[in-house]
Amino acid sequence: MDTFQYLYNQLKERPGYLSIQLSMQEPKVILITPPFTQLNTPYPATAYLKGFLNTKGLSSLQWDLSIELALKIFCRDGLTRVFEFIENIGDPGFEKVDVYQNRYRYIDQIDAVISFLQSKNPSFAYRIVRGDYFELADLNLDENDLNVSFGYMGLQDKAKYISSALIAKLSRYITDNLDPHFGLSRYAESLSSCVHSMDDLYSTLLDERGLIDTLIEELLDQKTEVLKTSTLVAITVPFPGNLYSALRCAQYIKLRFPSVKLALGGGYVNTELRSLSDKRIFEFVDFISFDAGETALLQIINYMEGSIPVELLKRTMICDSQGVRWIDGSLYRDVNAEEAGTPDYSDLRIHDYISVLEVVNPMHSLWSDGYWNKLTMANGCYWKKCTFCDVSLPYISDYMPHHATLLCDRVEKLIQDNSRSGFHFVDEAAPPALMKRFSEEILSRNIQISWWTNIRFEKSFNYELCELLRASGCIAVTGGLEVASDRLLKLINKGVSVVQVARVMDAFAASGIMVHAYLMYGFPTQTEQETVDSLEMVRQMFELGILQSAHWHRFALTVHSPVACEPKKYKILLSTDSSSNFANNELEYMEPHGIDHSRYGDGLRKSLYNFMHGSGIDFDLQAWFDFNIPRTSISPDFIANAIETEP
Fold it and tell me: How do strand 323-327 and strand 316-320 relate by DSSP bridges?
């Protein structure tokens, strides 16, 4: 069809209306999550896309190779191959001599341990706790510490914690002796995190394959019959640690099934590869899609079917005789919540996911323990003003809330589909008014669920609203406190104060809802005094029991943030060497009159780890650092007074 004729036909339709019809034979689409993301629950990207394709009558399959590969490694056959492979390369890992010497015991035990972590054999907890299978000393665990944490009746969690320590120890052994890039949540992250060149990643992909690569290919070998009849494989790359394995999967499929086309998308792609010009990545994939994937994927399918010319792809990069090209000629808008369909997890091995308990903290463990259906209350962020954030990108800027009735319909549908009633709403910031309407709808329908989400610490979260959220099943919230300094919060344009955050935390705590805070250090112009004072604010929040969990991260300057657009305002100098033909998200910068923020990192993390375990809260802050720090200028009862004087 002539391009201009097709454009004319589109324009005849009501502007902005999405009504794409496939004129040729329906293709078979495979949606892949590559290793490694989470072990306890599926990453939701492929389920969202499958749910949308269902609304268009298109069949698709989804594979979570993350959990599949983990189970292929942590089983009798997998561990046997790991130890044999290490022996064959002439170094059985004698620096971890206890692991190697106990290899046959671990091989014999691993299937039972994994089955227990999958909740398939709960009675096995008695033998784990009793020490029938591995010594606590081998795992650097102390019986007295475990009894303090779990008591004498917290049997399942205690056994889960011990089993998780075993999985962590074996993972470190694999990293140290077999594959330096191995990690169950950040596989090969060093090859793709904050890199401006594809050189190292490309050379590693062309190197001789290791055991982990071989296992990935064996998983795909098992799916040969499906791949042979497929036309398109779409791979999501949510995090830097997924890029290597995504391209390794694509490389295998390209070699074995050259007629199959491959598309790449996901969070890492959206933020890191927007200015991509390196052609080498197109040796592995044919399309790179950005931002909301529903319409973009459908347009790729239409193009492959010959229904549209290449110029009508949506937010997609290709590489042809003209080089690397960005194409966004489609006249179709992105779909709204009603058109997107209910996420569909039907192809995934729901009952094979592994719950691990890495930290003895009930709030912090939510990310790795238990199966959570993933949904969003809204697309984008209703605030979209924070100066450190990628506010110019669509995943932040294109705010669109969903209706409470639609959310509850999808909650009920997912419970019906997989019999799991835990929900994690993965919003940038769930709107308080919508949370209220959702809770009321949940209560009116008498739906029994447990749910948690990410919020901003808005003053609208008062005691009355928090009680309503609790009644509907809300168990926890996470939110950005960032830097606990009013001057810096204003500079960040966070829209909150420390006092307001403390009062909101207190309202949640009074309702029995756990709170996790995201914390930041090293923001431009931050002083040592402000860093120490921020730590003191956080310490007081833990002391009062209004904060249960938190995480410090070092400020990173991203190219799409307001700070990067106005560096002079924040008294920083951008690096002159900003050339990049591959990933281009995090920028290097100098703070001419700033401090060495990096030296505070270890002390901040160490103190927080102890606070989350209920220890060291009464220590002098100096105890966490091996260099002299300023004494805090914050009154020891500052947070308590803020809560007590609340109107």
Answer: antiparallel
Q: How far is residue 292's CA from residue 265's CA, in Å, rounded to a whole number?
A: 9
Q: In 321-433, at which residue ranges do the beta strands (DSSP E only) sit?
A: 323-327, 373-375, 378-379, 400-401, 422-425
Query: Quick one: 247 exposed, middle or buried, by C-beta within 10 A (0-12, 13-18, 19+)?
Result: buried
pLDDT at 102: 86
Residue 31 DSSP SS3: strand
Matching residue, tokens 């007629």: 259
pLDDT digits (tens, 9 = 90+) for 569-590: 999 999 876 567 888 888 889 9
In 3-state terms, what secondary structure has residue 283? helix
- Name the maximum alpha-carbon separation found in the chain: 76
Check the CA dihedral 407-408-411-416 and report its sign.
Answer: negative
Closest CA to 456 of 419, 411, 493, 491: 493
Contact 390, 563 (CB under 8 A): no
Residues 6 or more apart in contact with residue 403 via CB below 8 angstroms: 337, 338
Task: With beta carbons less than 8 A apart as the criterion, state whether 300 and 329 touch.
Answer: no
Strand 378-379 to 400-401 pairing = antiparallel
End-to-end CA distance of the chain: 67
Task: Tell which phi-psi region holds residue 127, choosing left (phi > 0), alpha (psi between -120 and 50) or beta.
Answer: alpha
Whole-angstrom distance, CA of residue 177 vs CA of residue 159: 27
Task: Return d(Cα 631, Cα 66) in angstroms, integer.
Answer: 46
Q: Which ranges of 305-347 does DSSP label H, i.e. alpha helix?
A: 337-340
Could you write out the DSSP letters of every residue in 531-576? HHHHHHHHHHHHHHTS--EEEEEE---BTTSHHHH-GGGGT-EE-S
Q: Residue 11: what are its φ and ψ, rounded to 5°?
A: -65, -25
Pair 605, 554: CB distance under 8 Å: no
Contact between 72 and 80 under an 8 Å Cβ cutoff? The reply is no
Query: What's the Cα-to-Cα distance from 384 to each of 379, 389, 397, 417, 496, rounded to whole Å?
Result: 12, 8, 6, 34, 14
**Helix intervals (H) in 89-142:** 97-101, 103-117, 125-130
- For the stretch 509-519, pLDDT in tens is 999 999 999 99
The amino acid at 138 = D
* Structure confidence by residue, pLDDT tens digits, 592-605: 888 899 999 999 99
Cβ atoms of residues 132 and 141 within 8 Å: no
Contact 188, 40 (CB under 8 A): no
- The whole-angstrom separation of Cα 515 and Cα 517 is 7
Report the b/e string of 376-391 with b at 16+ CB within 10 A: bbbbbbbbbebbbbbb
Q: Encoding tokens for residue 453? A: 């989400």
Whether pTM > 0.70 for this model: the answer is: yes
> How far, in whole angstroms, is CA 240 from its chain's centroid?
10
Closest CA to 377 of 424, 443, 339, 420: 424
